[in-house]
Amino acid sequence: MNKRIIILGAGESGTGAALLAKAKGYDVFVSDFGRINETNKEKLTQAEIPFEEGKHTEDLIFNADKIIKSPGIAPKVEIVQKALAKNIPVIDELEFAFGFTKGKIIAITGTNGKSTTTMLTYHLLKEAGLSVGLGGNIGKSMAGQLVNLDFDWWVLECSSFQIDGFADFKPHIGILLNITPDHLDRYDYKVENYVASKFSLFKNQDKEDYALLYTEDKLINANLSKHRFSSKLFELKFEDIPSEGAYANPSGIIINLNGRKNTFAQDLLTIKGKHNQTNAMASILTAKLAKVKNEKISESLPKFKSIQHRLESVGNIHGIEFVNDSKATNVDAVYYALDAFTKPIIWIVGGVDKGNDYSQLDAVSTNVKAIICLGKDNEKIKEYFKSRCPIIEETQSMQDAVKMGYKLSKDREVVLLSPACASFDLFKNYEDRGNQFRLAFQLLEREIELKKISQSC
């Protein structure tokens, strides 16, 4: 009899895992407590995979040999707790997919910057002509792709939720960019539990593997000695020069590897800010470990386009740059965004507060010229910044926020959407918020152009 696998959650990762399990001969059943979107329903139906939605039927679930759950389902959810009590293994889609690839894994985690680093690493390897796939917490599921093809390399963005579902998963190159308190409701409100989750990315590595860590991050530095690395450790730094690893200075990104120094000029980078230099260090060092030549890296870096909703320039009107950083849903991400600009900033901020401590922004908010609060409850933001910023406006309309930003700004200034908050008060998600920012910019640009035409007639 075929082994039975139950999939909890029929999103991108769950559906991908179901398709791969079916292709490998497992008895598969999918259960989603919410509603399954029509596209995924069609995929499951075509693959003849039975499913249910709007409920979890225990009789159909607890006869499983293994459960693959969506990263969004907390371990404390009743159905998961009952499965664990019955000694049914509960794993992540990436853990399952790992068993079916012959490729080498590059796994990237961190509270912030992992999407940019994942995309830049993928870009450098792809441009170099390597056989490389992209997955994890970004793009298409790894499991779903493995139904039809495998790659020599996989570049995977890994959230802490996904890492928590790893048992045998072993990255050849593991990257930890930074750690700041986030999602603590999943970790008993203990930052040490969240830190342990991030560091466990490296638990299965051996001497043939590599661990890349930004060791000047406070929480990484404070916990480094508590964790044993069987892999070769490379440090990413600014202040000190590692004997092997990467560092950055005004001349560029420098890679120290195998006794050789490789320098990549700063003007090759298309991504802004000190945090993106950390991301670039990690990506370039990874490319070097994958045997990509310096010339190919230097050719590829200027071709990289920033990912959507992360310090994404959507356009320029009369010298005023409009920047979409909707993915910045916590204060730490906003710190990096504000620090990326020396120009005066009109800052659009707000949404569903996640217990933000805005004092963390004191050092970088001095160049904020005006604040536009975009959310249903802006009192916390207004109260903190009322004595720190001369202009504070508020609205619940993205179109109004963009127009306000334009009116408050002038040539060589920046209108920055960097919310520090979740988006669910006014928008479907951070992508919807960012897309509405881009649309509002386009409407404003068109309005100004039509006004110019009418005045010339």
TrEMBL record:
It catalyses: UDP-N-acetyl-alpha-D-muramoyl-L-alanine + D-glutamate + ATP = UDP-N-acetyl-alpha-D-muramoyl-L-alanyl-D-glutamate + ADP + phosphate + H(+). GO terms for molecular function: ATP binding; tetrahydrofolylpolyglutamate synthase activity; UDP-N-acetylmuramoylalanine-D-glutamate ligase activity. One of its GO terms (cellular component) is cytoplasm. Residues 309-421 form the Mur ligase C-terminal domain. Pathway: Cell wall biogenesis; peptidoglycan biosynthesis. Pfam families: Mur_ligase_C, Mur_ligase_M, MurD_N. ATP binds at G110, T111, N112, G113, K114, S115, T116. SUPFAM superfamilies: MurCD N-terminal domain, MurD-like peptide ligases, catalytic domain, MurD-like peptide ligases, peptide-binding domain. It is found in: Cytoplasm. Its EC number is 6.3.2.9. Keywords: ATP-binding, Cell cycle, Cell division, Cell shape, Cell wall biogenesis/degradation, Cytoplasm, Ligase, Nucleotide-binding, Peptidoglycan synthesis. PROSITE patterns: FOLYLPOLYGLU_SYNT_1 (PS01011). GO terms for biological process: cell division; cell wall organization; peptidoglycan biosynthetic process; regulation of cell shape. Residues 108-286 form the Mur ligase central domain. It comes from the Bacteria. InterPro entries: Folylpolyglutamate_synth_CS (IPR018109), Mur-like_cat_sf (IPR036565), Mur_ligase_C (IPR004101), Mur_ligase_C_dom_sf (IPR036615), Mur_ligase_cen (IPR013221), MurD (IPR005762). It is an enzyme of class 6 (ligase). Cell wall formation. Catalyzes the addition of glutamate to the nucleotide precursor UDP-N-acetylmuramoyl-L-alanine (UMA). Belongs to the MurCDEF family. This is UDP-N-acetylmuramoylalanine--D-glutamate ligase. It comes from Marivirga salinarum.
